C-alpha cells in the first residue's frame, strides 16, 4: 500500500510539472454522449490525465506529451472506453507497449504523437468504435470547423467535469498562428495545426492533451499545447495527423504491433 501511495504522489508531482508547461487542453463546451464520440478514450492513473483515440480495437493514439517519461508508472496506467462519465462504467484495458515518435521534442512539443498498444482489444459497439486517420498530405481549408472532446477542466485552473465535453473550433490560417505565437516566443512547426477563435471563448483545456480533433468522422489532430485556455489570439495547437512524419510514424507503430 505504501508503495502505491508513494507512486501516486510521485506521478502527480512529475506529471503535474509536465502539464503546467502547456495547460494541456474544454471551455464553453457542452455535455456529450459517448455514443456520438465512441472513439474517445481516457488515459488514467487512478485519475484521468489525458485523452486518446481508438484507431484499432487494441491500439490508441495520443500525444507523446502524455506518455513521456511514464515507463515507471506503466503498470499502474489504464485506458478506458465506452462511457460518457469519467471513471464510471465502460471498458478498461492496460497498456502493453508505447511507441512514441523518436523526434519528440518536449521543449516545444514537436512531433507530439504516441501510439499505445493495449493488453486486450475493446469490444466494439455503439459506445466503442475506431476512428480513421486523416490521409497523409491532406490539407484542411482555413475556417473549417472541427470538434474537440474530452474530460479536461472547464476553465483554466478549474474543476474536472464528470461527463464528457465537446466543443467546436475552426481552423486558423497557419501563418496567422505562427505570427500570434511568435509574440510569446513560442514555435509553431509544420507538424502542428491550429484551431480556435482569435476572440477566444471556446477551447480545450487542462487534461485534454492527446484528445481527438475530428472533422466528419476523421481524426485530424491531437490536443498538444497552447498558452492557458481560451485566451484571445492564442488558439489551440494540435499535432497534425496528415503530416508525413506524423502519419508514417503511426503506421510504423501499427506494423510494429502486428
From TrEMBL:
Residues 26-255 form the Peptidase S1 domain. SMART domains: Tryp_SPc. Pfam families: Trypsin. GO terms for molecular function: serine-type endopeptidase activity. It comes from the Eukaryota. The keyword Signal applies. Residues 1-16 form the signal peptide. GO terms for biological process: proteolysis. InterPro entries: Peptidase_S1, Peptidase_S1_PA, Peptidase_S1_PA_chymotrypsin, Peptidase_S1A, Trypsin_dom. Keywords: Disulfide bond, Hydrolase, Protease, Serine protease, Signal. Belongs to the peptidase S1 family. CLIP subfamily. This is Peptidase S1 domain-containing protein. The lineage of its organism: Eukaryota, Metazoa, Ecdysozoa, Arthropoda, Hexapoda.
Amino acid at each position: 500500500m505504501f508503495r502505491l501511495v508513494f507512486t501516486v504522489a510521485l506521478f502527480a508531482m512529475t506529471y503535474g510539472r509536465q502539464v503546467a508547461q502547456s495547460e494541456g487542453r474544454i471551455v464553453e463546451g457542452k455535455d456529450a454522449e459517448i455514443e456520438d464520440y465512441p472513439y474517445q478514450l481516457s488515459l488514467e492513473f487512478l485519475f484521468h490525465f489525458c485523452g486518446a483515440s481508438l484507431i484499432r480495437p487494441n491500439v490508441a493514439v495520443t500525444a507523446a506529451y502524455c506518455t513521456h517519461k511514464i515507463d515507471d508508472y506503466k503498470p499502474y496506467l489504464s485506458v478506458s472506453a465506452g462511457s460518457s462519465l469519467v471513471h464510471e462504467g465502460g471498458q478498461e484495458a492496460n497498456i502493453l507497449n508505447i511507441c512514441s515518435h523518436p523526434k519528440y521534442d518536449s521543449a516545444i512539443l514537436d512531433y507530439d504523437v504516441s501510439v499505445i498498444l493495449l493488453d486486450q482489444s475493446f469490444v466494439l459497439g455503439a459506445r466503442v468504435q475506431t476512428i480513421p486517420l486523416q490521409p497523409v498530405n491532406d490539407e484542411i481549408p482555413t475556417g473549417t470547423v472541427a470538434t474537440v472532446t474530452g474530460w479536461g477542466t472547464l476553465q483554466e485552473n478549474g474543476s474536472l467535469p464528470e461527463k464528457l465535453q465537446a466543443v467546436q473550433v475552426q481552423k486558423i490560417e497557419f501563418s496567422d498562428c505562427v505570427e500570434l505565437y511568435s509574440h510569446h516566443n513560442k514555435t509553431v512547426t509544420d507538424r502542428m495545426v491550429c484551431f480556435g477563435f482569435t476572440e477566444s471563448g471556446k477551447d480545450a483545456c487542462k487534461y485534454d492533451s492527446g484528445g481527438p480533433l475530428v472533422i466528419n468522422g476523421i481524426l485530424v489532430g491531437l490536443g498538444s499545447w497552447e498558452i492557458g485556455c481560451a485566451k484571445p489570439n492564442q488558439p489551440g495547437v494540435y499535432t497534425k495527423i496528415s503530416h508525413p512524419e506524423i502519419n508514417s510514424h503511426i503506421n510504423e507503430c501499427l506494423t510494429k504491433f502486428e
